[in-house]
Amino acid sequence: MTDCFGRERPCALGIEEELFLVDGSTFDAAPEFSRVVGEPTAELKPELFECLVEIATQVVPDADAALAELSRLRGELLARAEPFGVTLYSAGSHALARGADQPLVPLARYRKLAKLLGDGVSRQLVCGLHVHVSVPDWQTCLRAFEGVLPWLPTLLALSANSPFAEGEATGRRSERAARLLDLPTGGTPPVLRSAADWENATAGDQGRRHWDAWPRPGYGTLEVRVLDMQTDVRRSAGFAELVGALVCAAASAPTSSPSPADRRTSVCMSITRTSSEPSSGRGQASQCRRVSSFCVASSQSSQERNTGGVPPVGISSSLTARSERRPVSRPSANGEFADKPSRVGSHGTTPSNARRHVFASGMATCTCSPQTSCR
Which helix (H) or strand (E) is 36 found in, with range? Predict the structure, then answer.
C-alpha cells in the first residue's frame, strides 16, 4: 500500500469533475473522448463511457485557487472539443441520453465492471463531483472519515442535480445517487477502525471504490464523492471549500477514537436514495423519510433566505422538483421547445437559447463554458 499522507499541507484540496461530451447542435451525448482527448493525462481522464470525461485539478490551497484551476481545465477541454463539433454539458445526469446506446471506453477496468454489472452498466451514465482533502496521517484520516460521514446526506441534498434521466423526470432529486447503489461499493462506506480494515475493504483494488467517502492513502487524502456534478463551476469550487472545512473540522476533533457514525441513517442519503413511492423496492424508505424531510426543509429554507424566497437556478430547482415521472422535451433546431413542458420545479422556464440552456422544465441546466452560469 502506498502511503502519501502528509505529503501536502493539511486541508489542501484536489477536485475532480465528471462532464458530458455532447453534440454542439443537438446536445445529444457524443461518444468522442478518444478523439477529443486522445491520450489521457493527469488532468484529463476517461470515465466509463466514451461520452464522459473527468478533469482533475492540481493540489490547490483554497476555493479561489480551485475556481481558477477548474475554470482553466474546463476552458482547455472545451477548446479541444469544439473542432469536433462537441461541447460540454455539466450535471449529474443527461436528461435524454440512454446509457444502453453509449459505447464504453476500451479499458480493462471498464470491461471488468461491465461484466460484473451486465446490462445494468448502462445505468452508470452519471457524473459526480469529487473532492480530495489532504490529511497528515492515517489516524487523522480515519477520525475525519467518521466525522464527515453524518454530513454526507446534507451534502447530497445541497448538491442534488440529476432529477432527469433517459427522457423522464425520475421522481428523485438525485437519480445519480440511486444508480450508484447498483455498484458493489456504492453508497455509504463500511466502518474502518484501522488501515488494515481499509486494506481488507479495498481487496487489492485501491482506485475502483465508489463509496460516498473513502480514505485515499495513495494521494494522502480523504475523498468525498457523494456530490452530484454541478453546472456552474463556481458551485463546484464552493462545494470544495465546504467539504474541506468539514474534513478539517472533523480532523481537528479530540484525538480519542470516534464512535462509528450511524450507517442506517447515512445510507438513506437524504432525499435521493429512495423513490418517492414506498413500494419502489429501494428499501429503507420509512426509515429515511424523517431525515429526508429535514434535509430538504433545511436546504430550501437556507436557500430561500439567501435569495428572497426564490430558489436559485441549478441545483436548488432540482431540490424542489415534484416527484412525478414525466417525459422531458427536446429542443428543436432553433432552440425552442415544440411542446413546452409544465414546470417541474419552482423556478423553471423554457429558455430560447439552446446553446446556453439545454434542458428546461425546472432544472435550468446549461452547457458550460469556463465561467458559465444559468441566468
Answer: helix 33-36
